[in-house]
Amino acid sequence: MDRFVFLLSTGLARGAVLALFALSLVIVWRAARAVNFAQAAMAAVAVYAAFAVTAASGSYWLGLACGLATGALLGAAVERGLMRRLPHRTPLPGMIGAIGLVMVLQAGLAIAFGPEHRPMRAPFSERPFVIGGVPVLSPYDLFVLATAAAVMGALALLFTKTSLGLRLRAAAFAPETSRLLGVRVPRMVTVGWTLSVATAALAALLSVPTELGLSPHAADLLFVDAFAVAVVGGLDSPLGALAAGIGVGMLSGLVTGYVSASAAPLAVLALLTVVLLLRPGGLFAAGEARKA
Amino acid sequence: MHTPTSRTAVAALTAAALLGAAACSTPDEDDTPGITDDTVTIGTHQPLTGPAAAGYSTISAATAAYFAYVNDNGGIHGRDIEYVVKDDAYDPAQTQTAVRELVTEDEVFAIVNGLGTPTHSAVLDYLDEQEVPDLFVSSGALTWNQPGVYPNTFAFNADYVTEGAALAQYAVDQHPGALICVLGQDDDYGEGILEGVEMVVGGNGLAEIQTYSTSNQDVTAQIGAMMEAGCEVNVLGTINGFTALAVGTAAELDWFPQWYVSSSGGDYPTLVGYLGEDVAPLVLQGMVSVNYLPFSPDDEWVELFRRINDEYNDGAPFTGNTVFGMSVGYLFAEALAAAGADPTRESLVAAVESGDLVGNGIVPLAYSEDDHAAYRSVGITVVNEGVQDYAGPVYSVGAGRVTAVEAQPVPLENDGIPQPPQGDGSDE
Amino acid sequence: MRTTLRAALIALVAIAATFGLDPFRNYQLATAAGVFAAVAGLTVLVGLTGQLSLGHAVLMAAGGYGYAAAATAVEDAAPGAGPAVVLVAGLGGAAAASGALGLLLGLAAARLRGPYLAGLTLALVIALPSAANVLPLGGDQGLPAPFFPVPEALSALIAVEQWHAWLAIAIAAVAVTPLAVIRGGRAGLRMRAVLDDETAAGLSGVDPALVKTGAFAASAIPAGLGGAVLAVATQQVTPGGYGLGFSLLLVVAAVVGGLGSIGGAAIGAVLVVVLPWLIDTAAEAVPAELGRRLDGNLAVLLFGAVVIAVVLARPDGVAGLLNRLPRRRPSTDDTAPSNHAPLSTTALSKSTKLL
To answer: Measured by CB atoms within 10 angstroms of the end CB, which terminus of chain A is less buried, N or C?
Structure first.
């Protein structure tokens, strides 16, 4: 039982990061009806920026801010410079362009910074509190959970309560009608990309200190897991991303602990396949989201 | 239907022309490959990119620096050693390509220090077919020591079973009755270490056995299980990055057991790189590992290697990989010197099998005609206040038993430039 | 028939070309032939049905494992069996393993669109090393495959690399020719119909789900045979050889060659095999530290840039240039004008409501 609680609690923090990254995919899906396959590479660029600034200034928080800004700028630049110029009637050009971008960014990072894993410090202790003899969440885990919750809350407010959020949603769902009603659709798409990549950068920034270190591929696995999370939760549903993120995080923790480390990615793949085949809209989507 | 196929034809011809444009003639068969009057060309495959690059890409740079030093001092038998390093990204498919290119394009004399078990396994048969000397494989698998099957292949690392057994023996000697556990990589490396440990403590003597996969950078679940089992001595069959993860994760759980780490994952300077200079001395204090190469900070070999590293390797960080790479270089230079003034592939292999090579280890080399293992004994190292050094005990492993032996370090001679053996000049 | 004849002719030309190549170049040619088979499968799938698979490397791996397992089993069960029997059994194993996986993916593909399918296949690539450890596939070390020495009659004439190049060319021809027939025949028409307008296709009696599933399986088998080619050339199948990087290179080869074009696939396959090698050779000329960083990475960077450039400027790829060559007007089955163009233009921009 102790083991179970311990594994659940390690899965919880990982789940929060997954949920955050999945949320970034949901944002760009809502704004542009696209899945950004370059999200991991773009987030890695942002984390390198944060790493460089933290190393130079000694301040984690300055690095964090800089990483978020880099992510936001990169999101806007990629949307304006690449995605916008591609044909949009099918998702194929966007996906292929994103794959090209992945190769350019990751190879560029490897050339610029070398293949080494760079250690990144967490701003808070990673030593967990022990409750009833079982080590549970650490202060850093709490920071991750709180940050994830705050960002999700803020984005939920943005999408439901503000005029910007309304325009974002309108531009995505009915671009033609929105344009007629005076919404600047292209600008809304750019805003969506900006928000999305900044969120992805934040998720990667939170996850790297708990792993081996920063490398050009640091966010690859995060992206694949987060994609599974986003699909399981329904690509349209921020709430779904949150619930599925925590669920997938805990599932990986339990499978690693009770079966083997190798089995965890297979468990995620199996979950993804089952959900896609039985309920392609995700567990939290309403109706035929797939054909929007 | 005419069109797609005729386009296919044009495309196929274009493709063939692209390939053909780069073609050149088939090599001349008569001379010994890779040997000219003033050069010896050898090659290796190393992970310069990809996931393993972080741990091991510095080895070949150190070897190349040592060869540059030898060449500046007149080379071996007047020949410069040219070391062609090919990247295989630790991917067996790329190793195939790299080694074939080395053998058929670069026409190397020998393959030296090819790194990795899955990677080098992929080219073992090919090198055997081509009768290319395959010296000093950089892996502790037992595969390399099969003189009957692979007469030209020689190991360099002490094998994983030897390391595991030595670590376990030291643990039993130091902490009688302590609960011993193993965390190993889920391949032949982790299994070899486990086999060695079980040789000492018996099949049921372990409190907990955990494995990890390199594709999953989270070992919290495994460390949690070991903590729960009450492990007191953890023997790790882990690569450097995962040693750091395991030790770091345990420290986060406020757990500080004894760490006994295989040489492939127990290099202190490399671990500091992962853990950071502030944390590393605290969590790695007392870490036990094994080694068989000159290692003490005041050793004369280490002093020489530091000098070479500064001068020929741009002062790259000096780690266990640096010593490893340069020691391999020294051993090859020694073998080449012993292979005669007009070396052939046969004379090179014969020189290694002669048993006359001494290398630069702290224990004798084991090479002979029917033993292609390099080191059958290892010395225990311990980290104390940020310095990793030999702690004294040396264990020899053979026939399922571990025995304590004396260290026999090889003295440094002639500034680390191997000389032809005495009497070698007579046949010139 | 004409397609088969032409394929045989091209294979003969390619085999003749091996005499002009040294052993290493022949090894590269064998590798390129294996990659070509996989890229041909991928390019037809993406070009004709608009389904993007990021997981064709896994289908190749499935073929490689199927080949290694079947060929080794036959070799062990009947030690006297000739190399031809072992090879054919291995190829059967390759086609069965990749076909079965392709069929499963095809069933998923029939229900999924665009990014969902791409994401599922991506997850499959990432899970391959785990699968190799959990299933009896030999972990990181992989499975060994039988070695085919040069037959006695030829041993004085050619080196082993050249012999393997011949086998590779023959297998690739067997793998790709049916694909070319499908592409030019009724099944190809159905695929384009489904891509253009699923509803309309359904109304004219074409079952979109069936077409998509079939297309995926038809694309998977050549990929699996491509994996078998690599296993013949290297005598080993490992998960490391079929990672995400390689899978993306297959997409690059298909895009650069022009989606839907089999000839383009040949050019793309040779490019992704030869260009990294050329660049790495050039990178050895620059100082060690910089060279080490460029080695392996520069090629990927260039491929990425080329893919972006192609998708921005010339969605029909390099084969689009060949398309401008003067030629006879096709007569028989080119009912739609878009048929004889590399299909990427259709795939990239013509279809409706794919998402």
So the answer is: N
